[in-house]
Please model this.
Amino acid sequence: MAFHLRFHTLTVTTADAEKTYRFEGPATVVSGPSGTGKSSLLMLLKHVVGGKAVLTPAVRNHVLSARAEVTIGEQYIVLKRTVNDDRSDQVDVLDPDTLAERETCTVRADENLRSLSDYLLTAVDFPRETIPASRDGKATTRDLTFIDLFAYAYREARNIDREVVGHLDTWFNPKRIALFKLMFALTDSTVLELSRQLSELKEELRRKAAESENVLNFLVVSDPRTEEQLRAELASLRDMLQRADAALGSLRHELEESTAADAVLRQELRVAVDSARAASQEVLAAQDLVEARAAVVAQVELDLSRLDRSATAIEKLSPFDFVVCPRCMQRLTARPVPEDHCVVCLQHDPHDDDIDPAAIAQTRTGLALQLQDALVVFEADARVLETARQRAQQTDFLAHSVRRQLDAQTRDLVAPRFDAIAEASARAASLRAAIDSVTQLRDSWARAHAIEREVRELKAQRTRASADKKARTAELAARQTLVTDLGRDFNTMISELRPAPWVESATIDPTSYLPVVDNHSFESLQADGGGIVTCINVAYSLTLLEFGITHPDVRVPSLLIIDSPRKASGTNLDDQARGHRTYRRFRALAEAHGSQIQLIIADNDEAPIPGPAFGKIELNYDRPLVPGVAHPGPEHTHRAEHES
Model:
């Protein structure tokens, strides 16, 4: 049965005023001349349930928020959404009695808030599904939203004479078809999930096929050898490597044995080298000591020479009384000289002990004895140095002799084995590199086989998924008769509304679910005139609405909003009669089903067929949609329409 969706009121709030519009009875006609806000009123209904509404400048510039009282499913709630501000992507769910906020939902993806679409779909108990799609040639999915479903409830004036529920929109059309199938239970979550899996499997198969082609092309270009040839060559290379490793091991064993034979000689060489190093250290130590002794002897000889010169000077010069300077020959008698100072240098006169010949002789004797002792020690240390040098020469000669003996033995026994080992190691390394190269090619072949196995498994999964989808679709096939029944009811509706005298039959296409009139598609009918196409579109929507009310297993909205059901109609008698027939059908539907349905109709004129089923919302230039904002009048409206 059609799920319940009904608007009770719409409150429009500006900075200075507030106006509430009420939708009473099963049908409400919003009437008024062009430019008074009829379409904007309907767009605000779409706005509060999360849709992207086309709003006029008057609404965008002056309306702060729109608030609607709504029955959706079993819930009676109030939805409030601001207009053209930083919170216009959010909708507040209010308590209808207190207008206290229950919850804030988002109309865009937001990890912190529940989406309004989820809230409303849950309220009407409609499944939240995703449908398979493609973008840039790649498999993807699209979520079905409440606004997608709302497209079946709202026939906008701008599209009513050119498309059926957005079927010309290539992005939306797959959603339209999926929603129709869900509403009529021609599909379900299982079929949609299998369809998504099949779409992903198709994309994965395409990717794997491209990968397999790339790997095989690489193998053909990089190496002409077949997989069997590579397998045989790999076995041969591994056998050759095994023999090369064995030969290398044998050479290393022989080298170890010859090295063991040289162990004694190497030990002797280490001892000789250590002895030579110790002897060299002894020479250095003795040399330092001899140099120190020589310095002592030189110092004593210097002191003795200085003493001899001083004694000679005292002996030769003390008898003289200088009256002139011996250097510049100036007279000294006139210069003042302190007592006990030398008249020449003006220093204190020396002590008597310093110039006493006996004291000088005693000092000289002490220095001579000291020099004699220093020379004795120097000569002894020189002999030690010479002995150390001889010992160092002997140890160096011994170490050199042992090293020559070891070199001769190594040259004859070890060096040839080292050359053989180097050659064998290079051979083994070359074989390993060749094995790595062949192994890489083998791995590429293995990758190609793995991809082939993956492709076979993907094809098997696709076969199973396709069989499951076919089986489930077959189970639902019996419901396809609903489309036939819908087509029959649509034909009845067309016969009643008579959009054109020449129309003889109408039905619903079983695959596109679009109206077909006299075996012509909806697009091909547009050449017959906008008023005729509008009437056919209205007939299609009315048929869906009534079919949902009368069939308990069909989940269409119980609401139908129609903007300009007489769009593009002329004023001649035939066009007026068609409009009257359309409104008679509105009245009959409202009277037959009462509160089970809601019709909201925007038209330039009042309902041409009066009746208690029609509630009224009348707009005019004195009382336009936006409260508190003066309308510029019909002249401005006509001028704006002409300019646009």
